[in-house]
Amino acid sequence: MWQFHDLVNFLAERLMMSCEELCVAFIIFESCLRARPRILTAQSLRPLLVASCVISCKLLSDRVLTLGWACDQLDDMFTGLSLGLLKALELQVLVVLDWRFPMRSATYQTYADALLSKPGKAFVLLATLGLAGLGAS
User: How would you write the chain as a 3-class SS string?
Assistant: First the structure.
């Protein structure tokens, strides 16, 4: 699971994500898993998380954030990442969510508390959704 932690840290740093943006990314990720439990595989973990983070940043950031900029920030660490692929990933996540974002404030608060009190707790929350076995991906 530590590799998943490293991936989240990498995405947060490269995309300059705030704690709020990271919480929303986790909610988007979790919502995709709840909507389609079989969506998560060893091969889909990273793309799903990347798309969740990019969508979160676009939703919450006051700065102009384009997919081109996001791709430039990430392409050195993701083999084969292109603007076209990032667009497709973003669209796939939005379709899975039926273009609706979760509005349960309790869930947001759970992730915010976990990130602010003890950062590892947020990863434990995600692990309960089935990520524990995918840490090696």
Answer: CHHHHHHHHHHHHHCCCCHHHHHHHHHHHHHHHHHCHHHCCCCCHHHHHHHHHHHHHHHHCCCCCCHHHHHHHHCCCCCCCCHHHHHHHHHHHHHHCCCCCCCCHHHHHHHHHHHHHCCHHHHHHHHHHHHHHHCCC
